[in-house]
Amino acid sequence: MDTLDFARFARHSKPGPRYTSYPTAVEFHAGFQERDLIQALARSQTEVPLSLYFHLPFCKSPCYFCACNVIYSSSERKKERYILYLQKELELLKEHLDTGREVVQWHFGGGTPTFFNAEQLERIIKSIKAVFSNFAPDAELACEIDPRHFNYDQMRVLKEHGFNRLSFGVQDFEPVVQKAVNRLQSFELVREKVELARAFGINSLNFDLIYGLPFQNVESFQHTLEQVLRLDPDRLAVFNYAHVPWIKHTMKIDPATLPTPSQKLEILRFLIAFLTQHGYEMIGMDHFAKKDNELYLALQNKQLRRNFQGYTTKKFSQTIGVGVTSIGEGLDYYTQNFKDLKAYERALDEGHLPVERGIALSAEDRLRKEVIMALMNNLELDFGAIERAFSIDFKAHFKQALEALKPYEQEGLLSMDAHGLKTSPTGAMLVRNIAMVFDAYLDKHHGDQKFSKTL
Fold this sequence. Notes:
Blueprint: H1 6-11, H2 34-42, E1 50-56, E2 58-59, E3 71-72, H3 76-96, E4 103-110, H4 118-131, E5 135-145, H5 152-160, E6 165-171, H6 175-180, H7 187-199, E7 204-211, H8 218-231, E8 235-240, H9 261-277, E9 280-283, E10 287-290, H10 294-300, E11 305-307, E12 310-312, E13 318-322, E14 327-330, E15 333-337, H11 341-349, E16 355-360, H12 363-378, E17 380-382, H13 383-390, H14 394-397, H15 399-410, E18 414-416, E19 420-423, H16 425-429, H17 431-436
Parallel strand pairs: 1-4, 1-13, 2-3, 4-5, 5-6, 6-7, 7-8
Antiparallel strand pairs: 8-10, 9-10, 11-12, 14-15, 15-16, 17-19, 18-19
Helix pairs in contact: 3-4, 4-5, 8-9
C-alpha cells in the first residue's frame, strides 16, 4: 500500500453517512406502507436473485458500544413467541413474492442470533427453508456470533443446514476496555469458540473489531491485534466507534475515557500498518481480508458490492428483510419493518406485512445510488458505464458534483480524467466524503447530529 497521509485524512473528517443504502435510512418515511411493498414485490424481476436477512433481536444485556436495534430479555417465552411471528411473516411473504427464486445470500443478524438455543435455531431455519428452497450452490449463509452465547449444539445445527460463514463479535481483548463497554469475554473463550467452528469445517471467519473505545491506545490495540493474528481469521471488519448517546441511550460510556481524535488517528494509522504487514489488505474503508480471500479478489476485479449486511462478492440481489426492524432492498425501493415489537406483532396478527416505513426510489435516486455505490464498493467511477446504463451525459448531469470534487483532486485524494475518477490510498479512507458530493439529500441535514464522523 502506498503511503497514507493521516494528517490530511484528519483535516477532512466530518459527519457523513456510511452509505449502506442510498437514499440513506434517514430518508425512509411512513408514507411508504404495506401496499407499496406489495407493489414492489409484484414488479420484482424474477431473474434477480434473493438475499435473505433475518433479524433475531434478543440480547441478555447491553453492550455499551452497540448501536443496533436490540431487545434485552432472557425470557424463553418471548423467544418462542418471536419464532411464531417470524413464521407468520414468512407465510405472508409467500402470498406476494416468488419464493422459488434463487437465494445467493442468507444472514442471521441481531441482537444475538445464538441467544436462541439449538432447537429453536433449527425450527427457525426449517421454517425459512420451507418457504425459500432454491439456494445457489455457492450461496453465502452467515451468522453473527457472540462467543459468550455459542455452543456445540448450535454449531452443529448451523453446519447441518449449510451455514458456511461466521462473524465473531470480538471488539477488543483488553479486560479494562471490555469492562468499560460491558462485554466481558476472554481470549481463551473466543479461541475455544473459533476452534469449535473450525472443527466443523467453517473456514470463512470474520472478526468485528472497534477502535475508539474507552481506554484504548496504540499499545493496547497492538496487543488485541496480536491475539487476533493467533486466531487467524480470513476477514476483519474494523469499525470506528461513534459515540452517539443522544441516539442510542445504552451508550453508557464516560466520554472522558474515550481516546481523543488524535489518539484515534494514531490507532488507525497503527492498525492499518500492522494488518498490511501481516498479510491483510484493506477493503473499502473499514474491512481487511487476506489476498486469497474472495473479498480481496472481488475488489481487484471491480466486482465488490455493499448492502446492509456489509461487503459482498455476490451480484446485485433483492434483499428480503424478515423480523422486527429488518430492512429490505429492491432495485427501486427500501422497506423497513416496525422497530417496536408490539407494533410488529399487531400488524402480523391483522394479516399485514409489518412495514413501518421505506422509500420508493425515483429515477434520479437510482442514478445517484449507482454512482455512490460504485464509489463505496470499488473506490472509482467509470463515467461511460454510468452513461450507458442511464442514458445521460455524466459531466453535464453531475457538473456541480464534479466541481465540488476539484479540491480533493488538487490535494491528490483522487485523480480524474475524461473517462472517470479513482481515489488515492488516502482518498479511499475518505470515500464517504467523496461520495457525499453526489448525495442530493445532504443539504437538508446540515447541522443535524444524524451521522457519525469519518474519524
